[in-house]
Amino acid sequence: MSSSSIRSFEYLESLPGTVFNRLYKQPSTALAIFRRMLPQLAKSFVMAMLYMSRPFPVADLDTWVRPGSRREQDTAIDLLERLQILKRTAEPNKPRSYVLTNPFAASLRQALTGGGNHKSFGVPSNTHVEDQVTIPQLDEFARMQWEGVLSYMVGSTGIGMNNEGANLSPSVKHLLQYGRLVEVRGRSVDITQDGFAFVLQEVNAQVWTILVLYLENAEELGMDRVDVLSFLFMLGSLELGQGYSKANLTETQLQMLLDLGDFGIIYQDTPDSDSYYPTRLATTLTSDAGALRSASAGFDTALRSSNDDKGFVVIETNYRIYAYTSSPLQIAILSLFTRLSTRYPNMVSGKMTRESVRRAISMGITGDQIIDFLYTHAHVQMRKNPTVLPPTVVDQIRLWQIEGERMKSTVGFLFKDFLSAAEYEGPCQYASDIGVLKWKNDVKRMFFVTRHEHVATYLKSQKEKRREGG
Predict the structure, then answer these.
(1) What span, in angstroms and rounded, lies between the C-alpha atoms of 85 and 39?
(2) What is the pTM of this model?
């Protein structure tokens, strides 16, 4: 599951059952969740049961999975249950079985076979060909607006960035501050640690991060979050370059058109026009295609489908940096942790110093984030080296960070008091497999995780299996 999928999944997991019931009435939502948020094994289970008239016995499902893949099976079943796609049935004198929930199953069948008058995949507008907005125009609009958002976040560096006409509304600035991506002190805007991590993400993950913040803030704006979610999932199924009618949209969704336009996700000629156009940022919401890189390099990949996305940063063992770029956004990001000294039409140069790195760290940016940025954008000549980045530079960045940090705290949950080694090893390994394990002590049979829901569900399922087998 990609990072953007994880972000959206964590939000969906927190929703009550009544919201899922309303969401799954829309075929476009059911299809989007099936396509984007389910691993391959979970998709296989769903497709196997989609047209079954009877519940699927657990024993039969177990025969489909190799004995060595039981952990993947448990993870897939757990995910389907948490998304309320699958439920267990336990009728007297009948084996324990699984069944797909409705309306998810009905909506997915309708999405796959077509038919109906639900209009959940949008209604194409009847715009004349000569009045249609072209795909290059949509791409340029999306680029201008999205880079305007990133430029605002890193534009406090004082290099005189030009946002190329992007005009951020007060609601966009409020959302960035609400998500703690920036901190506003008077007239100064400072990027935070979370903000810098946001800039380093792939573009699709950045968009989903913003949209989840928008969802969390929706109720404060008096918006129906089911309408909001349904519209976002619908956008991922629309066709790039095709205009769509506003006639069947709710009041909440009409307001969303204005807000999403500020981010370059939706384009409208005017707020009063009868149609809207999804940009490439919208049509890739429910797709991992492209594996977009971070910052504007990733945006070039997203908007131009370029396979020639080369790095631009050269760093020497004396900490001097040469960046072959003319992008104000990339230069602004570099200036967060580099003392830039020279600027040419297609290159800037400078030096990483203790003061410049410590300044970035004081803003919440970590040494590992700086290293990740340099590695991601390393020039093609740098990639010919076995380690890409000079080890002395990597080590020194980390040393500059730990000068002021002797301890790092992590919020999470401690599992302990296991009665046997076998009882301890199963959930500990499961936590490691799903990426939530932070620390363990095999001797004391204790482990620490960042999220407890998955492990608790695993322990519960293992307890049920022992009860049935006992």
Answers:
(1) 13
(2) 0.71
